[in-house]
Write a structure and sequence with these properties.
477 residues, six-stranded antiparallel beta sheet, 49% helix, 20% strand
Length: 477
């Protein structure tokens, strides 16, 4: 810490000058003069060079700081890198405040510019509150504003951590459908060229109207994939039989693969071969295979892009981008389901069964969907971390109504929470996860959000079953 030696206003002129400076202080204006005289008599003037560390998160705060000049900021690292969360300039009051329960600060307080402060040691607080009631009341308001700012910062940090996890999961989930769509589009380009060539060959075959009508009917059967679901072994046998049939009729065996995915039977192929001239069978089957291939690829692309669109819609609903942050009657079931979908990749990676039991007649609650979704995702994420891997893990999301209250339970079959930690798990910055894997804010933020919704969150735990229960008042119809 880079600072000059503390100085006290020991002579009457020095003390009078200090009182005048306090009287002009932005936060202290209007404070009775005798209270300012007490502060001047009991405080120590200190000077800090730019870059000095005034206090660290590892040490208790020494006292109250009245800033005359300079710029002080508090930097916090909650697992996402060092970040400035609050700052104070000349005219502000910070440090330990009367009636504050804070002992250690959440981060390091650093001077970004040379600073001059008046320090009142915390050991003098009992006398301070007795001799300076107006100043004490003023600092209570400062403390409340600071607490709100810290809470807002905590909520934003945890929201960013949650969104970061969900974004990683969303990217993982989007990878499969986007890759499938890109692969299908590439194959479709080749299939279009083959379809053009097959159409020209078929046109050269000179089919009659009656023959072409039979071909169209078989084509309709080929394109109807509603009954074309085959097990891998069944499909392999079917492709082999169709390939043999094609070879026997001097047609290209490569058409067997697309035809095997359709409901067409060998009997229908025999019927078609009986109607068409022998020289036209190969061209007709090539045309059928090309049509089937294009339809299959188009269907695959549609499914893949629909899956991607569904995932984006889930994320949009989760973040409630189109809705104002105001309380309103809310159906919490979509939010719980969307949170589960966004974390489904984590359940699959750990082979954990994720079950939802959400009744259709669940009452609405008065709330902000975006904030409640953060509660659900935090609780589900923690449950997935706690549940055993390898197929033995289970996480259940259960909701019901009880006496005009909506209860949401998140249950896992993990090892449980040790009894000595029950009283600490909702504390800010407390985490049982390894360093870098948890901020210690998830449950603290969840509890604050739930309480802001006039609800309560509790936990019961024993080996093999841990249950977090969120209780919210139902909207009366």
């Amino acid at each position: 810490m880079s600072t000059t030696a503390p100085t006290a206003a020991t002579t009457p002129p020095e003390r009078e000058a200090l009182v005048e400076r306090l009287a002009q202080h932005r936060t202290l204006r209007g404070i009775p003069r005798h209270e300012l005289e007490w502060l001047a008599a009991h405080g120590e003037v200190r000077h800090f060079a730019a870059g000095a560390i005034i206090s660290t998160k590892l040490e208790p705060i020494s006292g109250l700081y009245i800033l005359f000049t300079g710029h002080v900021a508090i930097y916090v690292d909650r697992g996402t890198g060092r970040r400035k969360v609050l700052e104070w300039r000349g005219g502000d009051v910070t440090g330990m405040l009367p009636y504050s329960r804070m002992v250690n600060p959440p981060g390091d307080s650093v001077t970004d510019e040379d600073a001059e402060v008046l320090l009142v040691d915390r050991s003098l607080f009992p006398e301070l509150t007795r001799e300076c009631p107006e100043f004490t009341a003023r600092t209570v308001h400062v403390m409340l504003d600071r607490a709100r700012a810290f809470q807002s910062s905590d909520l934003q940090d945890e929201k960013m951590v949650s969104l970061g996890k969900l974004s990683a999961g969303l990217a993982h989930e989007l990878n499969n459908p986007s890759s499938a769509a890109a692969r299908g589009a590439r194959l479709l380009v080749s299939a279009l060229s083959e379809s053009d060539a097959a159409s020209r060959a078929l046109g050269a075959a000179g089919l009659t109207g009656e023959q072409f009508a039979v071909l169209e009917r078989v084509r309709g059967l080929c394109l109807d994939s509603s009954g074309a679901v085959h097990l891998p072994i069944e499909r392999a046998d079917r492709e082999e039989r169709i390939s043999d049939w094609l070879e026997a009729h001097a047609a290209d065996p490569a058409a067997a693969a697309p035809l095997a995915d359709t409901p067409i039977t060998l009997e229908q192929l025999d019927e078609l071969a009986g109607v068409l001239p022998r020289t036209a069978v190969a061209a007709a089957l090539r045309w059928l295979a090309a049509n089937c291939t294009m339809r299959t690829l188009a269907t695959d692309i549609e499914r893949a892009t629909s899956r991607a669109a569904d995932l984006v819609a889930v994320m949009k609903r989760y973040t409630n981008m189109d809705r104002a942050a105001v309380a309103e009657p809310t159906d919490i079931r979509p939010g719980i389901a969307d949170s589960a979908k966004l974390l489904a990749h984590k359940a699959r990676q750990k082979t954990i069964a994720l079950r939802l039991e959400l009744p259709a007649d669940l009452p609405m609650v008065e709330g902000m969907p975006g904030e409640l979704n953060q509660v659900w995702s935090n609780l589900i994420d923690n449950a997935l971390d706690a549940a055993p891997e390898g197929g033995a893990g289970e996480v259940t999301l259960r909701a019901d109504e009880d006496h005009r209250e909506v209860r949401v339970r998140v249950i896992d079959n993990g090892p449980g929470i040790p009894a000595e930690l029950h009283s600490r798990i909702f504390d800010p910055f407390f985490t049982t996860k390894p360093v870098g894997q948890g901020t210690g804010l998830g449950l603290d933020v969840a509890r604050r959000v739930v309480r802001r919704h006039n609800g309560e969150i509790t936990v019961t735990s024993q080996p093999g079953r841990t249950e977090f229960c969120v209780v919210l008042p139902a909207v009366r119809q």
